[in-house]
Write a structure and sequence with these properties.
It is built from 19 helices and nine strands. It has 509 residues and is of the alpha/beta class. α16 links the parallel β4 and β5. α12 crosses α14.
């Protein structure tokens, strides 16, 4: 068994060509032709503490009953830089996992049986470990030193990967940025560690969860509720790690539908919502939210023909929205790598519970290859978004555009097969909802004044599917719960109602 410890960190010089200069230009080539090189002594070694490593092992051997399990809980074998110490600690873990006695004799025998005793320095090195430790009662302090040095080595190794990626693909800056973020986030996860909790707070959380389910037993929402009653009955809310797709033909209102969900999550539930708008600007998103919240006609807001009462409603709505935890990104041509990077940063800085992407088919893949068709690119985007939802442990709502297939059928109701450009979207998604407004297709059986709309939950991986009815308020660009008995409300008659809770036709959860 090869126990040598190598470290893959190397700074390679980067060549650059000197630019041609006029005779009047000062010759600075000697200063700038080569980039500054990091000063690394020839005898340099990555961060480690031989003394702390030996003291950890010595503390275990001096008092194995008290210290062995604690050390195993604090450290992993890779934390030891010296290959001898790493092999000894691994042997200790093996003995303890098999419930065998641990002392100098049993440890030495295990190492000998596995052909490692001579490589770690023989019985003499083991005996030296137990006698050199100042006190076995400072195990946690010794372990912290070993752990800190290990984390520094992890950072150096991550940096070496980024350097290698840059040297291999000098034009792929965004890929290098994503790699750096991913590496450092992985280090953060490992350094933060999992904290063991006693049974009392766990039981209290369980009781609170049960009480919440009893309070909402009609819908059993265990995730983030959409605010649309019939939809929430089918889904029980959007769950962490889910990729939820809502698709429609252009102009049906998929952006409005997603913003209604965002408004409910942020304003009524107090959730953090991050909206990636690849088609509309942040200002356009803000205008829609204000119109929806204030219930003032969107057209009048755009044209500036609102009266004094409307202006108060608009101002109050904007103030309410500004206090929520909604975040916007309207970068055009956003790549998957840029979206992931922005999502990770925003969640780490502000706390995000829900992400909305509008919309998938105009996103860009990280790299464009000549042999890739658009279906392959969309499949890459879909798979990447699903992976991001699992990584960040939150639901991601993705808006998609349907192809024209539904318009050629006698029944204009969309189907799963109408998802544009890739069946991978259907495969990756945990839920797929197809939004449809009959009035868009001049359906003679539908009165356009009622604003009737349907959402067909055509796929639900963890629950039932079904078709629900909604009401679309065109002047407010807003969907609400369907009510046959009520006509479409006028903006002036319903503005400013129930500012802290549910509004007419909306769920209060």
């Amino acid at each position: 068994m090869d126990l040598r410890c190598g470290f893959p960190f190397e700074i390679a010089p980067i060549s650059c060509k000197a630019a041609a200069m006029d005779s009047d230009t000062p010759d600075l080539r000697g200063k700038f032709q080569q980039p500054p090189q990091a000063h690394v002594p020839t005898n340099w070694e990555p961060p480690h503490s031989p003394e702390a490593e030996r003291c950890v092992l010595g503390s275990i051997l001096y008092a194995p009953k008290d210290n062995a399990e604690e050390a195993i809980g604090l450290l992993v074998p890779e934390a030891f830089f010296d290959p001898r110490n790493r092999a000894i600690f691994q042997a200790i873990r093996e003995l303890r996992s098999k419930q065998q006695l641990l002392d100098l004799v049993t440890l030495g025998q295990w190492l000998e049986d596995n052909g490692q005793l001579a490589q770690v320095g023989g019985p003499g090195y083991l005996a030296k470990l137990s006698t050199e430790v100042p006190t076995p009662y400072h195990l946690q302090s010794y372990a912290k030193i070993v752990q800190d040095k290990f984390h520094l080595r992890m950072i150096l190794e991550s940096c070496s990967k980024v350097v290698a990626a840059v040297q291999e693909s000098p034009d792929a800056a965004q890929d290098a940025v994503e790699l750096a973020e991913r590496e450092l986030l992985e280090i953060t996860k490992r350094t933060s560690g999992d904290k063991v909790m006693s049974v009392q707070p766990v039981m209290m959380d369980a009781i609170e969860s049960i009480n919440a389910r009893v309070a909402h037993k009609d819908t059993q929402d265990t995730g983030i509720a959409s605010g649309f009653d019939d939809l929430d009955k089918l889904t029980s809310g959007f769950q962490p790690g889910q990729m939820v797709v809502f698709a429609a033909r252009p102009g049906v209102g998929k952006t409005s539908f997603a913003l209604n969900i965002a408004e409910h999550a942020a304003m009524e539930l107090g959730k953090g919502v991050l909206i990636f708008s690849l088609e509309m600007t942040n200002m356009e998103i803000a205008m829609r939210l204000i119109s929806s919240r204030s219930r003032v006609d969107m057209g009048r807001i755009k044209n500036g023909i609102i009266n004094g009462q409307d202006q108060v409603r608009v101002t109050n709505a904007a103030f309410e929205i500004s206090k929520s935890k909604m975040f916007f990104e309207d970068t055009g041509g956003l790549t998957l790598a840029q979206l992931k990077s922005s999502a990770r940063r925003t969640q780490a800085k502000h706390g995000v519970n829900l992400i909305i992407i509008d919309y998938l088919q105009i996103m860009q893949t990280n790299t464009v290859r000549k042999d890739d068709n658009r279906q392959a690119q969309v499949a890459e985007l879909s798979g990447g978004i699903k992976a991001l939802a699992k990584e960040l442990k939150l639901p991601i709502i993705v808006l998609c555009q349907l192809n024209r297939q539904s318009e050629t059928r006698q029944s204009k109701q969309p189907m799963l097969a109408d998802l544009r450009e890739s069946g991978a979207i259907e495969q990756d998604a945990d839920m797929v909802g197809l939004l449809y407004r009959p009035e868009m297709n001049n359906d003679e059986n539908v009165n356009s004044d009622t604003g009737e709309a349907t959402l067909d939950l055509a796929k639900n991986r963890s629950g039932p599917t079904g078709r629900i009815k909604l009401t679309f308020l065109k002047t407010l660009t807003r969907f609400e719960n369907y009510s046959r008995a009520e006509s479409v409300p006028e903006a002036e008659d319903n503005a400013g109602s129930d500012r802290g809770g549910s509004r007419r036709g909306r769920a209060s959860r």
